[in-house]
Amino acid sequence: MISGGNVEEAAYNGDGTLVNSGEFDGLPAEEGKRRIVERLIALRRGQPSVQYKLRDWLISRQRYWGPPIPIIHCPKDGPVAVPEEDLPVLLPAVEDFRPRGTGLSPLATVEEWVHVPCPKCGEPARRETDVSDTFLDSAWYHLRYPSTDFDDVPFDKERTDTWLPVNMYIGGNEHAVRHLLYARFVMRVLYDMGLVPAPEPYTRFRAHGMIIMDGAKMSKSRGNVLNPDEYIERYGADTVRLFMMYLGPYTLGGDFRDKGIAGMTRFINRTWRATQLATGDDTTDDSRERRRHRLIKQVEEDIAELRYNTAIAYLMEFARDLDHESSAGSARRIDAETLLKLLAPFAPFVTEELWERTGHESSVHERGTWPAYDAELAAPQRASVAITVNGKRRAELEVDAGTPEDTLTALALANPRVVELLGGRTPRKVIAVVDRIVNIVTD
Ligand SMILES: [Zn+2]
Questions:
Q1: Which residue ranges does the chain devote to CATH 1.10.730.10?
Q2: pLDDT at 186 over 50
Q3: pLDDT at residue 55 in the model
Q4: Predicted structure pTM score
Q5: How distant, in Å, are the alpha carbons of 64, 146, 283, 294 from that of 289?
Q6: pLDDT for residue 10
Q7: How far is the CA of 123 from the centre of ligand 1 (A)?
Q8: Out of 3.40.50.720, 3.90.1150.10, 3.30.565.10, 3.10.20.590, which CATH number does the structure's domain 382-441 have?
Q9: Three-class SS of residue 432?
């Protein structure tokens, strides 16, 4: 029985410190390891070495199912490749394809299939009876994808040169160890043979995170497995998708808590209302143009880096502003269109509906719809903020426009000139005005 409140939630699996290790006691694990090895070297009783845990890659297996390895063993010529016109080597039809536990493939017993003349010298020879493992196929499928319409070659050189290497590979962390390493083996060999344009198959890899539920890992025994269908039924697919992407950084995952969905519903409702009421055509408003260009840049850059959660945060902030402006009758149509275009990848259904309702005949998802930004307009604006001490101008801060009051106050109080003038005294009052001034008053 567990009593008391001091129960660990999970096993500790971080680094610790050394115990029962004589003079090395208390050292952090990494440093301890290093120091012990240094001692062994000094005593000439050991040498540092790295032990790799990767095993030999399994290519051949002793079973029936799989592509036979196209090699013929000749007593005179050794292993000889099956001539191209005889490829592929098909599996023979057999009655009993179960493994025999003898270390020999079931194919080895199919005498009429095994015995063939050597392609080189014509003398009696034997086929290789192992088949290749499925890992081999998953290690080069990226080469086949662009060339699936070619029957005579595994991949077309021109297509491969155009499309490879793959820009981004997204998978679970379990892929990072074996599958991706094997894919690199295959690609390296083909590159050395001059058959592929790059030595690495994938330029970037990102492992996705895991969604947990109310702070706990989902599992059937806990009965907290999330069924997205129920939520989609209740809130709509766009809302649920936005919510999932907003939960946390894509590579870290996030905690799924029901009550957060309401925030996404509000966001969709605001967008629904504001975009249909935004009819203003003022394109001369400099600050709104800057805001719009900045939004495009932020969302575009965040999507490229899989920072979907922050991209959505920018869109939510923008929708909130637009909603206020539409209530006041001043919302601009171009802002509404920009919002719909940028939101379209995250909420494809509702944006398509709104795109039509706001008078467009084409699809919001059509190629070429994505907006462009002007780098100069998108750049954050700077502001000079004066610092006064007891009414006298003493220093100046160069900050991003819109830097909030508490940040301005902190920056002003850390300014060397101000520190010197205060001489350790705590100011009686500090008044900061965004983009303008910080007034410091002492007794
Ligand atoms: Zn031979």
A1: 213-379
A2: yes
A3: 59
A4: 0.64
A5: 66, 41, 7, 8
A6: 76
A7: 6
A8: 3.10.20.590
A9: strand
Q: How far is the CA of 106 from the centre of ligand 1 (A)?
A: 24
CA of 78 to the centre of ligand 1 (A): 7
Three-state secondary structure along 271-288? HHHHHHHCCECCCCCHHH
Query: What is the C-alpha separation between 311 and 318, in angstroms, rounded?
Result: 11
Mean residue pLDDT across the chain: 89
Separation of CA 115 and ligand 1 centre (Å):
13
Q: Output the pLDDT for position 248.
A: 84
How far is the CA of 376 from the CAs of 126, 252, 369, 381, in angstroms?
A: 71, 33, 21, 10
Taking the centre of ligand 1 as the mean of its atom positions, its distance from the CA of residue 86, in whole angstroms, is: 16
The reported pLDDT for the residue numbered 2 is 39
Across the beta sheet with 392-400, the strand order is: 392-400, 382-389, 437-441, 429-433
Distance (Å) from CA 57 to ligand 1 centroid: 29
The topology (CATH level 3) of 213-379 is Isoleucyl-tRNA Synthetase; Domain 1 (1.10.730)
Tens of pLDDT, residue by residue over 294-311, are 999 999 999 999 999 999
Strands (E), 319-436: 382-389, 392-400, 429-433
Whether 226 shows a pLDDT value over 70: the answer reads yes
Characterise 390 by phi-psi region: left (phi > 0), alpha (psi -120 to 50), beta (else).
left
Where in the chain are all domains bearing CATH 3.10.20.590? 382-441
Q: Residue range 153-163: average pLDDT?
A: 94
**pLDDT recorded at residue 118:** 97
Q: How far is the CA of 118 from the centre of ligand 1 (A)?
A: 5
Is it the case that residue 430 has pLDDT exceeding 80?
yes
